[in-house]
Amino acid sequence: MNAKRPPNEDEDGLAQSSHARKLWAWVILQALIPAFVVVLTWLAAAHLFNVDFAFQKTFIGADLVLVGSLLLMTLIIDIWAEQRQLNASKGMLSLDRLWIVSAGFTFLAVMCFGFLKVKALQYDFPQRGAAVDPSIDMCIGANIVFGLFAIIWGAAVAVFAHRKFLEAELLRLQ
Amino acid sequence: MNTTVLLQLLIAIGVVGSLVGIFYLVAESRKVRVLRSHLSAQSSKKFSQSQPRFLTRDKWAEFEANLPKLKQVIVVSDVVDEPADGLRRAVMSNFARGVRYSFLISNSKADQELNGYIRIFRAIATIAIRDFKLRKRPEELALILALPDDWNNPPFVFYRTEEEVPSPEGLKTQHRTIAFRGDKTNVGIADRYEALDPVVGDALATALNSGAPKEVQEELASLQQDKFRGPEILKNVIPLASRN
Question: Fewest CB within 10 angstroms: A69, A130, A169, B200, which?
Answer without folding.
Answer: A130
